[in-house]
Each structure stands twice: as C-alpha cells, then as structure tokens.
Amino acid sequence: MRTKPGACRLARSRRHRTEPGSLMVLSQAGEAAAVPAGTDKELEAPPGLEDDAGTGQPCLHPAAPGMEAVGAEECRVCGCCSGSPWPRCCGAPGTKKKAACPGLGLFYTLLSAFLFSVASLFLKKIEDVHSVEVSAFRCIFQMAFVLPGLIYYKTGFLGPKGKRIFLFFRGLLGSSAMILLYYAFQVMPLADATVITFSSPVFTSLLAWIFLKEKYSIWDLLFTLFTITGVVLIARPPFLFGSNVTGIEGSYADHLKGTIAAIASTVSSASTFVILRKVGKSVHYFLSIWYYAVIGLIGCVIALFVMNEWRLPYCGKDRVFLILIGLLGLGGQIFLTKALQIEKAGPVAIMKTMDVVFAFILQILFLNHLPTWWTVGGALCVVASSSGTAIRKWRQSSKKAKQNEI
C-alpha cells in the first residue's frame, strides 16, 4: 500500500508518572501531587524524538515497515517541540516559540491554596453533618472526576497485580487522612488544624528513611524537632501549660481529640507519599486517585451505618456547602496539578504555605476567632521546618540533575 503525499503518523507522548525520589507537594485531605526530582525543563520530548531535540532542526520520522514512500513527500517531525509537524514548529524559520507566562505556576499554587482554605471554611460552617459524611461526598466527587480519565487512558480499575496491595493501602491511608482531617477541622480552630497538617513533609522524610532506606541527615532531624515543637505549642498539653488553656474552641478534650486526629491525618498522608514513591511510575496517577475515592467511600458508608450518623442535612445551606466543598477541593487539586506541570516542585511547595496564611485570615474574618500567640509561634515553627525540608530537597534534586547533564 502507498502513503498519501505528506502523510505522517505522530506518536503520542505518554504521561509521566511518579518516580521514586520525586518531590511531593501536599494537598489537603491526604492527596498528593508529585513531580520527578530534578525536573528543570518544562516539557520533555517524547520517546523516539530526542535525537535532534533542541537543535532547531527537524528530525526525520521513518515510515512504518511494509509501507512504500514512493512519491511521498519527506515526512518531518520536530523533536524540540514534542513532535509538531514541520514547518509549524519552534525550529522552523520565521516562527517564534511561545513564551510561558512568568509566575503562572506560582499563581496556580496560590489559587489552589485559596480554594482549599475556603473549602475548609465551609466545612466549619456546616452544622449537624458528621465529618465522615462530608468525606463520603468528597469521595463521590473524586470518583466522578476520575472515572472518565480511567476510561480514556484504558488503565483498568484494579491496576497491575503486583501493585494492588500498595494501591489498597494508598487508598486506605489516604481516605483515613481525609476523614481525620475533616474531623479536626470541625472540633478545633481552623488555623491550628491547617498548621499541623503542614508537618507532613517532615514525617515523609522520616518514614522514607525507615521504609525506603532514604538518607536522613542532621538537617532532617532538626526540622523534625522544630515540627514537634510547633505541634506542642498548638496542642498546649496541660502538664506543660497548666489546666487553664485559652484560645480554643469548645472544651479542651475536644481540642485534644482534634490535635490527635490532625497528627494522625498527617502521618497517614506521609505514609501515602512513601507508598507512591514505592509504586513509582508503574501505576497511573488516575488509578491511584480511583483507589483513594472508592476505598474512602466504602469506608465512610460502613462507618456511618455503624455510628448511625447517616442523614441528609436538614438545612438547604448545608447542602450547598457540601457541594461547594466537593467542587472547591476538586478545583484546588486541578490547579495544584497544573502548577506542577509548569513550575518546579520546590517553589510550589513553598508557595503552598499560603494555606496557613489564608486559614488565619479566614478564621479571623468569618469565624471571629483570634489566634493566640502560642498558635502563631507553633505555625512559624511548622512552616519553617516544612519550607526548609522543601528547599533542601529542591536543591539536592537540582544538583543531581546538573551532575547527570555533565
């Protein structure tokens, strides 16, 4: 058979998946977005098109076996712009490469942090709805978003046989982190719960050292001690601060329960990051979220029936809040993913600390609750340790990338 003049088949590039050693950026509710460590380029040329990438010259795309090219024009593909047909590519004469908007990735991160914080505020505003039921609605939104992606990419619903046990625990721990975090938001101040969740990168380094044998330096130990100090300042246990603890919501028993739930949520989130590193790029990102949503929904339904807490909200305002929590959480995850596609993970992780700032602002403006100086001090300790961990990982990955180029 003959090819038509000028015909050309372009291979689609595959979506990159999480690799061991990648930098994790925390999202609320036990979710994580990941990019490979040392990613300094915005885009990578797809497999098979890398030979002449960046030279400004088109690379020739060979005809398929058994196909004659008699009478056909030369089929040329540009490798420097991910397979765009010549001459509509960045290396063609007279064409200009589209410049990326500077700071767009950080803006997406800022928008993601704002959406997550507003979703947390709506959670505080909901009345007579248990945190487990709110988590169930969140899982339903996640499933509705992920299902079309699974069908489009043809990943299946179970994943590779050797990875299913890791996917199961990723879903179990991730959904547990979400439920515990939502409970913490309901029983303790918004800013306190948000600050504690930001200790997750520190716990991730510790668990990666234990289970993945990754390096754990003196700096990691220092950041861990800073994080523990910050959590103690927020929890303010009676044996250190006395029995008269001020600046909390409700009783101290509820505050202590919320603190324990937030810490457990943080450890569960860190565990999911370690599992994602262990699984690597063999499992599609959509499949990981699918397990998270399905197992979370099943667990929430079972827990609601056992506790006899399943009921639709009586107030129409609460129903609107439930829908908005699902939409805002989904929007925050989308913008965080887009940020990681065009920006390095280090700056994104640092910008994510705006979650804490938004939590303080929203708590003061809409909940009429002024944070204490103990909370502010604890927030500074946790944010400093989390930012230090992110900066250190970012510098290590950048240095490793430069060594690989040499």
Automatic annotation (TrEMBL):
GO terms for cellular component: endoplasmic reticulum membrane; plasma membrane. The chain crosses the membrane at residues 105-123, 135-153, 165-185, 191-212, 219-239, 259-277, 289-307, 319-336, 348-367, 373-391. The keyword Isomerase does not apply. Keywords: Cell membrane, Endoplasmic reticulum, Membrane, Repeat, Transmembrane, Transmembrane helix. Its main location: membrane. It is found in: Cell membrane; Endoplasmic reticulum membrane. GO terms for biological process: calcium ion export across plasma membrane; regulation of cytosolic calcium ion concentration. It is a multi-pass membrane protein. Residues 35-57 are annotated as: Disordered. Residues 104-235, 257-386 form the EamA domain. May play a role in intracellular calcium sensing and homeostasis. May act as a negative regulator of plasma membrane calcium-transporting ATPases preventing calcium efflux from the cell. Belongs to the TMEM20 family. Interacts with STIM1; stimulated by depletion of intracellular calcium. Interacts with ORAI1. Interacts with the plasma membrane calcium-transporting ATPases ATP2B1 and ATP2B4. Interacts with ATP1A1, ATP2A2, KPNB1 and XPO1. This is Solute carrier family 35 member G1. It comes from Anas platyrhynchos platyrhynchos (Northern mallard). The gene is SLC35G1.
